[in-house]
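Operator note (shift B, R.M.): manual run for Transcriptional regulators requested after the automated queue skipped it. Running by hand, logging everything below so the morning shift can see what happened. Input copied straight from the record, untouched. If output looks odd, do not overwrite the archive copy; leave it for review.
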Amino acid sequence: MGYGRMEQGPLAELLVERFENMPPQLRVAARFVLDHPKDVALMSMREQAHQAGVSHSTMMRLARWLGLEGYEDMRSLYARALRDTGASEPARRGADQGGDPGYSTAGVVADTLAAQVSSLGEYGNASQFIAAADLLARSRNLFGLGSRSGYPVANHFVHIMSFLAGGDRKVTLVGEMGGHGLDALQGAGRGDVLLAVGMSPYERTTIDVARQSARQGVGVVAITDSSVSPLARIARETIIVTANSQSFFRSMAPAFAAVEILAALTAAQSEVNAAERVRQSEEQLAAFGIYWKPPR
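Run finished. Output pasted below as returned.
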């Protein structure tokens, strides 16, 4: 199964490798370290334990589980990695300088989203996109699956990938709302690919359907928020995106961007002229009077 390789810190591969064998509380601590590498470098161990929802002794046990003498050794590794990459949280401090707080909030949210989307093009992430796109390009049929906040991302995937469909190949949205229902996957099997979208807290239906699809031989591509999420452990290829935002909600903007990157790469690997397909589709829709026209 493929795990995303976003910049998750110097111990990411070791944490993912040992995650399944960790006791439950160590898993919680390990996930915090994987998902918040900058906080590991910048926050005290007690602050990190509080954020993760575990005791500070659990954080120390995690360090020893990884072969380190103590948690300060882990913090030092992450602090050094942060300095080496020159990473920093994007922010505009207009309010601190006497500006309108609204402008500051807009700037912080926009900068954060821009940085999250930009990170998708980094080498480790790009390699995962290429591998996932190769699986999509070779697929017989494509399915998109997502619930709640993941549903519009799956719907967007189905919409843009439908331009690459042709012949006997179908692209189908499954699940709730406007989808065809889970029965659409009954005949799916080897050669088909399911894109499953899920962020914490994970919807049980998405996990169960992705797992059953994998059992049927369907290749699962996951867009999720952690290399140790349940979807990542099911998927053949995984794209890791962050859902953190500078506001009260979880952002799906990076997930939408991931879908569009996947579509562009899949189109490049396919023999289909996607641009011509889009043009033909828009001409047909225009002929049916779908598009608004200004009065003459």
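Quick read of the result: Strands lie at 142-146, 171-174, 193-198, 219-224, 237-240. The first strand starts at residue 142 and ends at 146.
Leaving this for review. - R.M.
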